[in-house]
Every structure is written in structure tokens, then in C-alpha cells.
Specification:
This protein is mainly β. Helix content is 0%, strand content 43%. It contains no helices and 11 strands. It is globular and about 40 Å long.
Length: 136
């Protein structure tokens, strides 16, 4: 499955993490959100996003989460009507696809991830969690 891999911080800081309790099954390098004080895997259009998991965890286990507000993550993207990115897409919001852990270029409704950079040859984008979707 595709992964959201920490690349760097827009503010130039170091990666910061916080440990939460998992409220369900979480895979490594997956966007997670708060739900009743625990973190759970994100679905498309979610808000209350706290960051990206560092490792896998199951219900009740501790899970380390990258929580930098300006953390940039490298991820794969997909799309059927929109199949690539352009410089005009930098700063644009797209949604998360939980079924394959990718950025969904076809979905801009309730979008949560802002494009910072891209590589169309590899079908990768570098993204940050949109401020409006952040929990912390």
C-alpha cells in the first residue's frame, strides 16, 4: 500500500512526534485523526487530522504520530479525470483516498491536503495537511 512519508518541514524545523492511543487499526505512514481522544485512520473529507502515523498499531496500542503543523509528506497520487499536476495546482487542495492511502486528484470536495510540489513521472506529490483540517 502507498505511504505518506515525512519529507521536511516548511518552517525548517525538525520532525516532532506525539504518542496517542490507537482507536482502531492504523497502518504505517497513514493520515490519522482524533476521535474520542484516540487516533483513528482518516477517511476522505475528514477534519480533526493530527498528523501521520510513524508505525502500525491496533486498537488500544500506543502509536507515534508526526504532528508538525507544517510537515510535508511525499505521497503517491491517483486520478481518472485529473491524471497529473501542474504548477497551477501548487497550493490547491485535494482529498485523501483511504482505500489505497493516496492523494485523490479527482476529489476536491472537503479536500484536506495542499500540494507543495509534485513529480508527474513518478506520480508523487508533496503535501501538507490544510490548516482547516487540523485538530492540533
Amino acid at each position: 500500500m502507498a505511504q505518506f512519508i515525512y519529507a521536511y518541514d516548511l518552517d525548517g524545523g525538525e520532525r516532532r512526534t506525539q504518542v496517542f492511543q490507537a482507536g482502531g487499526t492504523i497502518i504505517e505512514n497513514q493520515p490519522v485523526k482524533l476521535s474520542s481522544g484516540k487516533v483513528v485512520a482518516c477517511a476522505g473529507g475528514d477534519s480533526d487530522i493530527v498528523g501521520v502515523s510513524v508505525h502500525a498499531a491496533t486498537n488500544g496500542q500506543p502509536v507515534e504520530v508526526i504532528t508538525n503543523r507544517r510537515a510535508v509528506f511525499k505521497c503517491e497520487y491517483k486520478g481518472s479525470s485529473k491524471t497529473s499536476l501542474t504548477v497551477d495546482d501548487i497550493g490547491s487542495l485535494f482529498d485523501y483516498s483511504p482505500s489505497d492511502n493516496k492523494l485523490n486528484l479527482d476529489d476536491t470536495a472537503d479536500a484536506t491536503l495542499a500540494v507543495v510540489d509534485f513529480n508527474n513521472e513518478g506520480k508523487y506529490a508533496w503535501v501538507v495537511v490544510a490548516e482547516a483540517a487540523r485538530a492540533l
